[in-house]
Amino acid sequence: MVKTQYNEQHMGAAYGPYGQMTQAPQAETMRIDDVIVRTVALVGATFVAAMLTWGMFVSGDESQLGLAGLLMMVGSVVGIGIMIFSMFKPITNPFVAFAYAIGQGFILGGVSAIFEAQFEGIVVNALLGTVLVFAGMLALYKFRILKNSPMFTKVIVGAGFGIAGLLLVNFVASLFSVNLGLFATPGGDPTTLQWIIAIALTLWAAFSFILDFDMIEYSAANGAPKKYAWAGAFGLTAGLIFLYWNLLRLLSYFQGE
C-alpha cells in the first residue's frame, strides 16, 4: 500500500522543496492543465491495471489467481520502492509515475475483488466516497476555507512520515506472518485502536490534498519547469489511491459489525 498510500502514500514530498521548482525554466513552464492531463492518465492506467487483476480473481481459474497474486506482489514491491524514493526526491519521470500507477492498480484490483465478494457494493461506495472527498477538499481549498500554512505543512508531512513508517513496519511483519493488530480482517470485529487508526489515516489522506493543491498552484504561478507537472500528478494519484484504500477498509469495518 501508500499518499502506498500509500499508502502507502505521497507523504508530502512528491514535489520537493519549493526552491527547487521555481528556478528559471530552460524551456516551457508547467501549467495546472498539465497536471490535470497527467493525473487523468495516471488514474486511467491504475484503473486498467485494476480491471486486469479484478478479472483474474472473479474468473475462479486457479492459474489466473496465481498470476494475479504474482502481479500484486510485484506491484507491492514496486510501489513501496517508488514511494520511499518519492519521500526524498520528486517524481518527475513519467515512466516511474506510470510504474507506480500500474503497480498499485494490480493490487487494487485483486484486493477490491476480495472485498466485493464479501461485501457486495463496497467497491462502488469506496470509489464514490473517494471522488466526493477529493471534490470536497478541492472546493474547500478553492474557496480558501482551508489554507496551507507552514504549521499545516509540518503537521501533514510529519504525520506522513509516521504513517509511512507504520505501514512499512506492518508490511514487513506481515511477510513473517506476524499480526501487529493495527488493522482488522475484513468481516472481523475491529478494536478501538483499529477504528482510531482507520479514521486517522482516512482524515490524513483527505487533508493532505490541501498540501498538494497548494504546491501545484504555487509551482504553476512561479514558473516551475514543465516536468514538475508529473510530480503534481503523481502526488494527486498517490493521494487518491491512499484515500480509496482507507475508505475501503473503513467501510468494511462498518459492514463487519
UniProtKB/TrEMBL annotation:
Keywords: Membrane, Transmembrane, Transmembrane helix. Pfam families: BaxI_1 (PF12811). The keyword Transmembrane applies. InterPro entries: BaxI_1-like. The chain crosses the membrane at residues 35-59, 65-88, 95-115, 121-143, 155-183, 195-216, 228-247. The keyword Membrane applies. This is Bax inhibitor-1/YccA family protein. It comes from Glycomyces luteolus.
